[in-house]
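Last lecture ended with a question: if I hand you only a sequence, what can you say about the shape of the protein? Today we answer it with a concrete record. The protein is Pentatricopeptide repeat-containing protein. Below, first the input exactly as provided, then the predicted structure, then a couple of comments.
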Amino acid sequence: MVAAGLSPGPRSFHGLVAAHVLAGNAEGAMQSLRRELSSGVRPLHETFVALVRVFAKKGLSTRGMEILAAMERYKYDIRKAWLILVEELVKNHYLEDANTVFLKGAKGGLRGTDDIYDLLIEEDCKAGDHSNALTVAYQMEAYGRMATTFHFNCLLSVQATCGIPEVAFATFENMEYGGEDYMKPDTESYNWVIQAFTRAMSYDRAADVAELLGMMVEDHKRIQPNARTYALLVECFTKYCMVNESIRHFRALQRIPGGTEVLYNEGNCGDPLSLYLRSLCLDGRPVELLEALEAMANDNQSIAPRAMILNRKYRTLVSSWIEPLQEEADVGFEIDYVARYIEEGGLTGERKRWVPRRGKTPLDPDEFGFAYSNPIETSFKQRCFEELKLYHRKLLITLRNEGPGILGDVSEEDVRRVIERLKKLVVGPKKNVVKPKAASKMVVSELKTELEAQGLPTDGTRQVLYQRVQKARRINRSRGVPLWVPPVEDEEEVDEDLDELISRIKPEDGNTEFWKRRFLGETRNYLCEEDSKEDENQVGDDTKDKPAKEPNHHLQMIGVQLLKDMERTPVSSKKLKRMPEIDDDEDWFPEDPIEAFKVMREERMFDVSDMYTTADAWGWTWEREIKNKMPRKWSQEWEVELAIKIMHKVIELGGTPTIGDCAIILRAAMRAPLPSAFMPILQTTHSLGYKFGSPLYDEVVLLCLDLEEIDAAIAVVAEMETCGVKVPDETLDKVLASKRSGNSALPPPTEE
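The predicted structure:
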């Protein structure tokens, strides 16, 4: 153009600058601007904006500010360019420069857009810059746009991770009681505050979380929990050893697709999913443990190594809840403890020590170089007994509250028997302390039984056995070991008539509709009916001469019962003088309690719709059935069945049970006895690369022969040969002999 005698105008130079900007050449664009200015041409507004954009992309905020200053000299409006500079700096991850540019412009009187305010507050909070986010929020409110739930949630996300939950709770209270709908807390607001309390390192925060939980339930018509809410509640109640509550919320979480992944949280914050699995194991709850593992399988969530930590006896969550607790499994061969010590790195100093250490400050479970020593587990057997006791205690309380009428038309003797039976089931039978029998009065069989139970030889004459028993007792006394006594088997009483009467007691836990009707006096209460009958009998013939003042109310309300109880309690004359007389027309209610509740409903001081539980508010339709279901009695067969399922599920999820786990489950199956479980356990053990010692296999085979399960014995022998385990000739001969005798015992085939 110059060679042709044409002078380039501002549009021509703008095209040149724009070309450099599109190519990302900031220096080329600046040189073009300088050339334009030296030619005496006034640059266009768009030219300056393009330069601001390219400098922002390169993170050159100072150069961008210089361009804005140049625009001011040319009397251009710099607001648009300033907004572009801030936005591009944020998008290209120059957040600190973006904050500086924004605050300088805001102090100069420039007003940002809603999008810029939202973007800066959100990005500042993601980066943990609470101070700048708060400053931007103040600038936004100064220009007339009030902070909404979105902005408060951004601030809460930073406050929840600062380690001081009171800061987050103060912001939450500002939202809750601020009075405006646009700033009311939503589900995420509750999530951030629950997280702040759950992960605080100060002291027990379970009460604070329970308070938040109550507030959220009260506001259930507006907000409902999501997967993150349930995951945080499970994490909280697990860390504070409130296993029942963590199970309740996990059951809600597992019904949300991907819920276990949210709980796992990529292993951060102590791996809450593994902590939950371990807490179920420590509390002796394999049924809930299996539910959790199945939920993980549905979400394709593998089991973390933290969940598979070993206890001191080298058992994992697969078997550490099976009795005997805290005992190493008998795997059929002698364990080389020196080789194990060397394998664990004892010679090189890599072997981890247990925590907490005795007499020293307990270390964190994740302390480098230390292995976590978990407390002794509760056995599944003990847990079943405890749950049955709690259930029968609930039935006893229900019977006392409802009265004998709940049992139907029964005699007083039957009621007394039911109460005694329930008390016996709750407290347990009275056990007298069994003392060992004098050795001089014991017969040979009794002497042999005591010696055999203590692992002592049982050969010799009666005099030898007697001396051996006496010596063993003296040694036990000197060591402080209790003397051996023959085990007393508890004979379980079976009374079908009593069980049928007890089954009529229906606890109404979780049945909100029932308790609503009961409170309003719309359901029967047998206890109150009996009280009214007794009152009528006591009055006797005197009531015949007196006219009836009021019609009898055949229904009783809980509120009426409470008022009657208050009237029955004696009050001294001094207290009566001290009690002020209430004479306020606004608080006036009818004397009849039923009419009083009616007035309260009409005045909306009391609303039936406000009577609900957490299960009602959050749609836990499954909880009522679980609460009122009678716990299943413990049995060795059920325990083995659960253990096998858990072992298979753990392997499916990527975990590796130890050989001790397999041996414990096999021993439990032998105690049952459950021959059908021997082969699955042995096959799973061999698939993991483990092999038991020959004596354990012999015990299994001989037990099958004693139970006349010849096919099971043959299958075990075949499995041993397949896996390269040598079968002793004596064992093989016994199996073959049993096979022949079994075939000879069969009836001859009938000739057609």
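Comments.
1. Residues 511-536+555-562+589-609 form one domain.
2. The longest helix spans residues 380-402.
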